[in-house]
Amino acid sequence: MICKLCHSFFLEEDSIFGLFSFSELCQECKEKYSPSRLYEVFPIRGGIVEYHYLYDDLSLNVYQKQYLSKYLSVFYLDMLSNDKNFDLFIFLDDDVLFEDEYLGLFINGFNNVFMFSLMRKEIIYKDIF
Ligand SMILES: [Zn+2]
């Protein structure tokens, strides 16, 4: 099989469990790109911003970002449950973060904000607020 992330050939161990499902990633990529849910919390006027992300300090190309973005579904489940009563959900992609000053204006007026991204973005507090 060919790994969908590194495009190298790999062999899976034959077993009864592998008959109907094939692994898309080699063992090395499974370990390297295993998502871990990380977050930061910072205060804003009258509330908090929770910033969640899955990967810290990885360099990914566009194809890898696209493939790994399927793991963002954990955040979608948070959005659906909304047990912390967030007022606003923001997906931080490269375009949103590029406009720091607008992000601050957008958040202004909300108390509980949930931001999430695939990769950790460097958020400079003073540039946003
Ligand atoms: Zn691989």
Total domains, how many?
A: 2
Q: Estimate the mean pLDDT confidence.
A: 85
Order of strands across the main sheet: 1-2-4-3
State the order of secondary-structure elements, H for helix, E for strand.
HEEHHEHHEH
Terminal-residue CA separation:
49 Å
Bound molecules: zinc ion
- Structural class by secondary-structure content: alpha/beta
- Please state roughly what percent of the residues sit in beta strands, choosing from under 5%, 5-15%, 15-25%, 25-35%, 35-45% or over 45%: 15-25%
Count of runs of 4 or more consecutive helical residues: 6
Helix coverage percent: 25-40%
Molecular shape:
elongated
Beta strand count = 4
Which residues sit in consecutive blocks of at least 5 with pLDDT less than 50? none
Largest beta-sheet details? 4 strands, mixed
Descriptive notes:
This protein has 129 residues and is of the alpha/beta class. It has two domains: 1-32, no CATH class; 35-128, no CATH class. It has six helices and four strands, in the order αββααβααβα. The chain has helices spanning 27-32, 62-68, 73-81, 94-98, 100-107, 125-128, and strands at residues 38-44, 47-55, 88-91, 112-119. The chain has a four-stranded mixed beta sheet, with no helix packed on it. The mean pLDDT is 85. The structure holds zinc ion.
Task: Quickly list its features.
about 130 residues, alpha/beta, 6 helices, 4 strands, binds zinc ion
What is the compact description of this entry?
With 129 residues, the protein is α/β, with parallel strands linked by helices.
